[in-house]
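All the exercises in this workshop are built on plain-text protein records. A record pairs a protein's sequence with a compact description of its fold. The structure tokens are whole numbers drawn from a learned vocabulary of backbone shapes. Once this layout is familiar, the rest of the handout is easier to follow. An example says more than a description, so a record of this kind follows.
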Amino acid sequence: MDKRSIIGILLIFAILVVFSIINQPSKEEIEEAKRKSDSIAQVELEKATRARLEEEAKKNLETKVEEVKTDTIAQEIVLQERENRLGSFGKTSIGEEEFYTVETNLYKIVFTNKGGRVNSVELKEYQTHDSLPLILFDGPETLFSLNFFSGNRIIQTGQLYFTTNLAEHTTIGGPKVRKGDEGKEKKNIDNPGESKVISFKLEPEPGKFIEYVYTIKHNSYMVGFDLNMQGMNDQIASNISNLNLTWSYDLPRQERISKWGEDRYTDLNYKFYDGDIEKISQGKSKREDLPTKTHWIGFKQLFFNSTIIADDNFPSGAVVESKTFEDNPDYLANFYADIPIPYNGSSKENFGMAFYFGPNHYQTLKQYDIGLERLVYLGYAIVRPVNRYIIIPVFNFLRKYLDNFGLIILLLTIFIKTLVFPFTYKSYISQAKMRALKPEVDELNAKFGADKAMEKQQATMALYRKAGVSPMGGCLPMLLQMPILFAMFFFFPTSIELRHESFLWAQDLSTYDSVLKLPFNIPIYGDHVSLFCLLMTISTIISTRLNPQTASSASMPGMKSMMYIMPLMFLFILNSYPSGLSYYYLLANLFTIGQTYLVRRFVDEEKIRAQLLINKKKPQKKSGFQARLEEMAKQRAGQQPKKKKK
């Protein structure tokens, strides 16, 4: 290669280098080209992604269509099966259970569209013994259903789904501020005092329905319940005169376990149309057929009850049943009622009822004037009036001015001891007279041997008559006090006012005060030590020791021993009774001891004996009846010789 060729090649190379440098893109042009390249790549990616998503959506749609077709076929099969089994009610058996809460100032009721029934009731002013919300009953343990024949099919509305006009949560009598809503403005749903009407409707065909109408009022434990039916005359068998309303639930424990507490006072009650009230005690598993009309049926626990009440009456033929649960820490029993509802077969039917969900408070129940206050057990017929007309009015009067129940029981004790003091004083004077004549009685015992018991008795009675002493003078005043003593025995265990009220070491005056838990169980006594009961027993022994009647029974060792054994027996029995009752008996014993010292100070037994001896020497004035008896005896004695002569 010659020199000119090399120079030419170098020039060409130089030209190319210069041309490439001149035509090199700027930094901005490079970045712009890069952006264009990235945009093209993003567009291509989005196009590919969209195509993939469209393909997947198409496949999912095809799958869902197939699933809907399958579900539709399954639903059609289920619906067909239900219609075959339930007729026109078949479609109402398919649905989803929903719950609706209604609150007042007194309770919270949860309704369910399944069965159109009350699912649960919580009393907001009360708690269980362990400070949990007090639930009268809850869904899974509750049965409420209207049962009848439609064609040849048995329809149970408790398994069917109702429609309702009720919102998910309703407050009556003012808004309920929920947790997390504090400080937020809440719109009042209902004005205070206003009632709320809630309906659940079961509609097998358009224009034909069974409707439950509940009326809930502010500040009332009574819930109105009306059963309305329209156009059901061609749905319900025409050859029946009654439908059957079934109501049942398991009663949860609300109080501390005690055989003398909630276990004893839980029972199923019913009131006949003629006014008689009967019950099935909780301790019995029993079924009763009610042969006459019934006004109400109540499931009662110690302090609370749920009762269904007819505006007029339920027809005869109701069935009630109680099943006990042995040693169940959560539930007491299952109560069941099968109640006939009259059915006339007309196009429109209505039957009015009501529910009471609330406490066994005497005054609250009495205001309804339908005998519900009898659910508060006030004792036997002979002592019930004492509680109704004396104890409860005085107790309620004291409650108006005092909040301390220990002080209320103290004042109640003072009132009762003052009320019976005249009888106590008369009994003491009679016993003092008997003791004053003891020397003369001992002389008669020595004069007449054991083989002349009749003569000794006649001579003793003659002595008492001459001295003006009645042997019954000490017993009769004590007998008159017995109704009050027993009235208090029944009043304290059933008084809801004492529930969760504390005094001194007793946390709850409605149950026993346990100051010591024993590692073992003593029959009858229990596995704890009640201090109030122990103090009551000690005070009873002291009172017995100071009682003049104890000293006068020295001639009867068996009787004297029995008077000391009785307080020990009550120690075992009352150890598991309400501490309020033991506290009352303790106060009563202390007042009795004080009265004994007071009477002894002001009563001179020597003066009484002197007066009796004077009475003994006075000529005895005979009553007209006694004079006639003696005259008849003389006439008979004079006729005896004449008969012998003949």
Observations:
- Confidence is low (pLDDT under 50) at residues 175-192, 550-555.
- The radius of gyration is 44 Å.
- The longest helix spans residues 27-86.
